[in-house]
Structure formats: structure tokens, C-alpha cells
TrEMBL record:
It comes from Catharanthus roseus. This is Uncharacterized protein. It comes from the Eukaryota.
Length: 489
């Protein structure tokens, strides 16, 4: 095995004032003063009207409003208390609405919103509808988003291009492209709600994710007809899609256009997409060549860029270059992240190098870096590749203590370890636990188990799994229903 050529160096107070005492007057003048006052009080002349100065408020007196017509003080207080209580309630409920939206609890958010709408003093604004539409879209609730949008129109709130785009995005996230295009056509027919580059970028991304590239070309043509130029985000979306589909000629065409178009110049995301594409394919020379090209364009790398390089070098076991990148990150004060450590751990795991894998994991924890699900997937696979199956059990137990989320990839790693150990009974127990935890098996899960059964000549088990796989895939397609309620993304 290639020797490891680097090491981890980490390196009002209230004051009472006394009132002045009245000046003492001679007793002989007192009776005359009292007589004068009584004479003035007994005359029939009307009281002299006071002229109020600016800023003073006369209030109400017994001369201006009859006593029987004055409003009782207690009723005023009751109304003020009622108003203040209503404001306090509204503020509390509004805070609850914001909290549910922040936590992506769409069902609770809608319930609180309905409570607010029933109050005569509450008038929902455009921003509130926007947040709810985005939340429903991310939560896979496009039909609920449509109902909310129609409700908004019924209440007389004028729609905007941004609100229509949020509705369109909700359909795109659930892969309902026909409905999304319907929203686009509606926007085109409304003079004040014309689609913009963000609207088209959202729809283009949905088409790319669904591998419907013919629609991408038609959307580009429509944008050109409407004099809307794609921006860098739009082009990055298409670049990534073409790369995943292996359409390298189209990808090169888009990238070349970006290099000469000042309106959508490549950025660090463009750089990361291209480097990741060649890095995943193991084409190290092309990856390095494009890295230098992007640097010549004046694009500065970021932490994710270096993580992509480290991952690519690690997969090819080019530890010298992996070490160089990590040292370069330290020198320029780029932080080592969880992804950085994961890439190094994965490189050693694939090689079955348990010693350096453990050392990296220990350094990761020493620096206070939090491990995630991928960290433990790599550790489990690494110990399995090294034949240290007792340590696989230790890693599973440690993941439980650290409350690491157990997703499909995690169970696949454990199933992989069981298959490597040829412990089919434990593999079946893990598979059962996986389904009991409502964790959906994927094609990797079934492939691992089928290969393990084939190796032992258990053809009946292979047949049962293949049947289950078909039922699971068809069932998953049926479950793509906009009415499915999910509290979190």
C-alpha cells in the first residue's frame, strides 16, 4: 500500500420635594378677602371661559357634557383591556405561526394561519402567503399550495410574479411539470405577473432533474423570444444536469457561452460543478486542468472546492496530493470541515486502512468536529473491508449513543458489513429493523442482499427479494401523491 506522506498538524428614581409654605398675612385683612370672594361667587354673571393654550387639553367638564350622558369610566377600561388582550393574543399567535414555518411544520402552520384569518382585525399580507407557499412547496404539498393561492385571490389580494413563481416551484418540487407549465402560461397572460429569469430557472431545474432536456431547449427559446437572458444560476443548473447525464458536448457548449457572456460569467459554483464531474469520473488530469483555467478566470476556490479535490485524490489513493491540498487549506486559513474529514476517512476506508482511518477519526473528534451519518457509513465500511467486524458493532453502538440519524445509506453500510462477514442471519435482522424504522430500502440495498444470497446459492431468497424490489418501486411511484402529509422535508 502507498505510504502515507502527510500528518495531521492541528496545529428613575422619584424625589419628593417640599412645597413652599404660604406667606403669613395679617389677620385684619382676612375678613375683607373672604367677603370679596363671596360677592364674586354670588353674582349672576356666567363663568369666564378659559382660553386654552396650544398643547393644553381641556378635557370634559360638567359644564360641557351632562352627567347623565357621560360614558362610565369602567366601560372605557373594559374596551381598552379587550383591545389590548386582542393585540396580545394576535402577537402570540403570529409568533407561533412564524415558529411553525421556521421548523417546517406545514400542517401546524396552516392551522394557526386559519385561526388568525378568522379574526376581524387580522389582514394577511403578501409576505405571509409567500412564506406559506414556499413551506408547502418544500414539504411536498403542491395541492395545498394551490388551495392557499386560490384563497388569497378570493380575499382580494393582488397576485405578483413572485407569488406565482412560488406556486410554480411547489409543483416543480413534486415533479408535476404539467401543472408547473400551466402556471407559467397563466403568468404570460397576465400583464402584471410576467415570468422572469427566476421563474424560468426554477422550471428549467425541474426539467433537468427529470431528464427532459428537450423541454430545456424550448424554455431557452422562449426566454430568448421574451428577451430574458439566463443568468449564472440558470447555466449552472443546466451544466450540472448535462454532466450527470453524460451530455458533455452540450455541457461544453453551455460553458463556452458563459465564458464569453458578461451577463452570466462562471462563478465558484460553476467551478465546483466541473471539478466534481471530472473528479467523480476519476479523470484527475482534466480536473486539475479545469482548476487552473478557473483560477486564470479570476475565480477563487472555497472550502467545498478543496473538499472536492481531496475526495477525488482520495478515491485514486493519491495521498501526496490529498495531503498537499489539506496543508494548503491550513496555510490560507480555510477551515477543515466535516466533509473534509469524511473524504479522508472514506479514502482510507475504501483501501481497508483501518489504522489511518481511526487516526483521522480521532483527530476529527479532538478538534471538536461533529461526525455525521456519512462519517459512520465510511467507518463501518472501512472496518468491514479490513475484516474487523467486531469494530463494526462498536461503530453502530457509538452512532446510537451520539444519536446519529439512521438513514438508508447507514443501513446499507451495515448490510454491506454483514455481507462481507457472510453473516446472512444478521443481515436479515438489519434489513427487518430498517423496514421497522420506516426507512425505505433502495436499489443498493437489494443489490447487496441479492449478491450475498447468490454467493451462497440461495436462489429462493434471490427470487423473493427481486419480487419485493419490484413491488417497492411500483409502490413508491404510487405514493408520489400531492395529498401525502409530511410535517418536515
Amino acid at each position: 500500500m502507498t505510504a502515507l506522506s502527510f500528518s495531521f498538524s492541528f496545529s428613575s428614581s422619584i424625589q419628593f420635594h417640599s412645597l413652599p409654605l404660604p406667606t403669613k398675612t395679617p389677620t385684619t385683612t382676612t375678613p375683607s378677602i373672604l367677603i370679596l370672594r363671596c360677592t364674586v361667587a354670588s353674582t349672576s354673571a356666567p363663568p369666564k371661559k378659559k382660553i386654552w393654550k396650544q398643547g393644553e387639553y381641556p378635557g370634559r367638564s360638567q359644564f360641557s357634557i351632562p352627567k347623565e350622558k357621560r360614558t362610565p369610566i369602567k366601560n372605557i377600561k373594559k374596551k381598552l383591556d379587550k383591545k389590548n388582550n386582542a393585540k396580545g393574543w394576535a402577537n402570540t399567535v403570529t409568533e407561533a405561526l412564524s415558529e411553525h414555518i421556521e421548523k417546517k411544520q406545514w400542517l401546524q402552520a396552516l392551522e394557526v394561519f386559519e385561526m388568525l384569518r378568522e379574526q376581524p382585525f387580522y389582514q394577511p399580507k403578501e409576505g405571509t402567503y409567500m412564506k406559506l407557499l414556499v413551506l408547502l412547496g418544500k414539504s411536498g404539498q403542491p395541492e395545498r399550495a394551490r388551495q392557499l393561492f386560490d384563497q388569497m385571490l378570493e380575499e382580494g389580494l393582488e397576485p405578483t410574479a413572485e407569488l406565482y413563481t412560488a406556486l410554480l416551484a411547489a409543483y416543480c418540487r413534486s415533479n408535476l411539470l404539467d401543472e408547473a407549465f400551466s402556471v407559467l402560461h397563466k403568468m404570460v397572460s397576465l400583464p402584471l405577473c410576467q415570468p422572469d429569469v427566476y421563474t424560468y430557472s426554477t422550471l428549467i431545474k425541474a426539467c433537468v432533474d427529470d431528464y427532459r432536456y428537450e423541454m430545456v431547449e424550448s424554455l431557452y427559446e422562449e426566454m430568448a423570444e421574451r428577451l430574458i437572458s439566463p443568468n449564472t444560476v440558470t447555466q449552472n443548473i443546466v451544466l450540472s444536469g448535462y454532466g450527470r447525464a453524460g451530455k458533455y458536448e452540450q455541457m461544453e457548449k453551455v460553458l463556452s457561452g458563459m465564458l464569453v457572456n458578461p451577463a452570466c460569467k462562471p462563478d465558484v459554483w460553476t467551478m465546483n460543478i466541473i471539478l466534481s464531474l471530472f473528479g467523480n469520473k476519476g479523470e484527475i488530469e482534466m480536473m486539475e486542468r479545469w482548476y487552473e483555467k478557473f483560477r486564470d478566470f479570476g475565480i477563487e476556490p472555497e472550502t467545498r472546492t478543496f473538499n472536492i479535490l481531496i475526495g477525488a485524490y482520495g478515491k485514486k489513493r493519491m495521498y501526496d496530493k490529498m495531503s498537499t491540498v489539506m496543508e494548503y487549506m491550513r496555510k490560507l486559513s480555510y477551515p477543515w470541515t466535516t466533509s473534509t474529514y469524511n473524504n479522508v476517512i472514506e479514502a482510507f476506508a475504501e483501501a481497508g486502512d483501518a489504522k489511518h482511518m481511526e487516526y483521522t477519526f480521532d483527530q476529527m473528534r479532538t478538534e471538536g468536529m461533529k461526525a455525521d451519518t456519512k462519517t459512520f457509513c465510511c467507518l463501518i465500511k472501512g472496518y468491514a473491508n479490513a475484516g474487523l467486524f467486531h469494530k463494526v458493532i462498536s461503530m453502530v453502538q457509538l452512532a446510537g449513543k451520539l444519536e446519529i440519524p439512521e438513514n438508508t445509506s447507514f443501513y446499507n453500510a451495515v448490510i454491506y458489513a454483514c455481507a462481507r462477514a457472510e453473516d446472512l442471519m444478521e443481515m436479515e435482522r438489519v434489513f427487518k429493523r430498517m423496514k421497522d424504522k420506516q426507512c425505505q430500502p433502495d436499489s443498493v440495498t437489494y443489490s447487496l442482499m441479492v449478491d450475498a444470497y447468490k454467493k451462497e446459492g440461495m436462489n429462493d431468497k434471490v427470487y423473493d427479494l427481486e419480487q419485493e424490489k419490484q413491488e417497492t418501486v411500483s409502490g413508491a411511484l404510487k405514493d408520489v401523491n400531492p395529498e401525502t402529509e409530511r410535517n418536515n422535508v
